[in-house]
């Protein structure tokens, strides 16, 4: 069994309904962490909720390059990121290994803007991950990891547990995660989603992050990664009932490479 588990709910701030589900999941103890989207309609209300003692120090930034409008100007002029209406429309392939200096600077500027919006609402993010896992695109991941190191926070690794990871993807993720560790340092050693947890053995040591998108299932919780009607709470209790649930703050501060 892992020594500790971070059960993180993505998409905090996406909508009032998502906010309500995540708040309730914190209150029941099912999740121990969440990440917030800084350019979405319910961001401000999520920041208010984040001031509750149960959530303080447990909210990271869910860096977004795929949904809504950017918060910075430079990225608007790059068709690989935005359409003519000024909305995110990412067209980079997942195997992209290089970005121009202009593109990398635009990504950094948008990351700065989303981080700063959190600070303006009295929220200091505890860690970094991304919407639709865009920071798993190698050059974007390098920008995010360097930024995380500057801010002294952890960054989420690419998934490294699960039967759906083929040999080529496993090799890529292993090399990519090694690079993230080089640039950032502090992070959870293992990452999976609830379906991976159901179908594979959890790690025997270290810190595991489970990436969740909880939904209401009556008085229980489902998840976007699970079958309709399948209980996220029951799954976590079945596999990790004796493992302490923690936030990213337990990992300490990351440092620049």
CATH class: Alpha Beta
Instruction: Give the proportion of residues in helices.
Output: 25-40%
Briefly note the structural class of the backbone: alpha/beta
**Rounded to an integer, what's the Rg over CA atoms?**
17 Å
CATH T-level topology: TIM Barrel
Number of domains: 1
Judging by the overall fold, what is the CATH architecture?
Alpha-Beta Barrel
- So what's the overall shape? globular
The residue-averaged pLDDT reads: 94
Describe the structure.
The chain has one domain: TIM Barrel (Alpha-Beta Barrel). Helix content is 33%, strand content 16%. The protein is built from 7 helices and 9 strands; from the N terminus they run E-H-E-H-E-H-E-H-E-H-E-H-E-E-E-H. The mean pLDDT is 94.
Record the SSE blueprint.
Layout (H helix, E strand, L loop, with lengths): L3 E9 L3 H12 L5 E4 L6 H7 L9 E5 L37 H20 L6 E4 L7 H14 L2 E2 L11 H18 L5 E3 L1 H6 L7 E6 L1 E4 L2 E4 L8 H9 L17
Parallel strand pairs: 1-2, 1-7, 2-3, 3-4, 4-5, 6-7
Antiparallel strand pairs: 8-9
Helix pairs in contact: 3-4, 4-5
Summarize the model shown.
With 257 residues, this protein is an alpha/beta fold.
Notable features of this structure?
257 residues, alpha/beta, TIM Barrel, 7-stranded parallel sheet, two-stranded antiparallel ribbon, 9 strands, 33% helix, globular
